[in-house]
Amino acid sequence: MDLDALATARHDDWERLDALSRRSRPSGVEADELIERYQSAAADLSLVQATAGSTALGERLSLSLARARLRFTGVAENPLRQLSRFALVGLPAALYRVRWLTLAVALATFVVAALYATWVLADPRVLANLGSDEELRQIAEEGFVAYYSESPAASFAGAVWTNNAWIAAQCVAFGITGVWVPWVILQNAQNLGLTASIMFAYDEADTFFLYIAPHGLLELTCVFVAAAAGLRIFWAWVSPGPRTRGAAVAEDARALFSVAVGLVFFLFLAGVIEGFVTPAPWPWPVKIGIGALALVLLLFTMLVLGRRAARAGETGDLDAFDAGARRVSAG
């Protein structure tokens, strides 16, 4: 192949590709032309490399193609702008999609926990199977409270955060199985009910609620949200509607993965409250008030910002979010 002849014949086309690549705001027609000239130049580069290997002409074409590719795929948006858009649009939209399932999971958890507690408290033999009187009394009168201060606050908060974030991620990731989320809900409700029954049996009900409330309001709600996201993905597989089953699962999974990402922040906040606020020697109204404000932040994100984002057509899909960010930066 005569590379000089090819360069001469394609010179104007390649120059036009470079010119379009430098346009800050190409029109619709120019954007279409950019893609067409990109495809043509890519074919030219493939021909050059196949017949002549690595050449200066090939390097020149590669550079032009890379510049053009950045124009129609978009360069990375400002990270702070991306983060704020995710927090104010993408995450709320994803949370809003699971609002009713979240409520259903919460109700199911509390009903099962109440049934467990009632069962244990109604039969002394069941309570005795949980431990000796001395052991259970130690838990109710000392161990329950000591749990929150037996480790340094920072390390305790970090351990709680990572453990809860891992559980939330598992709920979303394994929700498609249909059994993982119900198992997590049952385990969570069982632990809550058994702990409550021990505290109630030894007249420490007030201690139970006072120490659970500051961090539990947000922490439990985060678990409910994660469980709801996992169930939503499972339901997309069971009842995909007009979509194919694979497309339905993929679409909902992409959108609801935003939930797992967002819950990392909220669970971090819950961990900080559990590590630093719950065991603090502050008035209980102050500590519970802090926990309530944290819950309000999550509910505001889900119900107020989420409703607004949903009305604007947002789904929380991370792929769509990235594409939108690229369009913003490119346009």
TrEMBL record:
Record bears the keyword Membrane: yes
Domain of life: Bacteria
Keywords, comma-separated and alphabetical: Membrane, Transmembrane, Transmembrane helix
Transmembrane segments: 100-122, 208-234, 255-278, 284-305
Matches recorded under Pfam families: SpoIIM
InterPro entries tied to this protein: SpoIIM-like
Name under which the protein is recorded: Stage II sporulation protein M
Organism: Agromyces bracchium
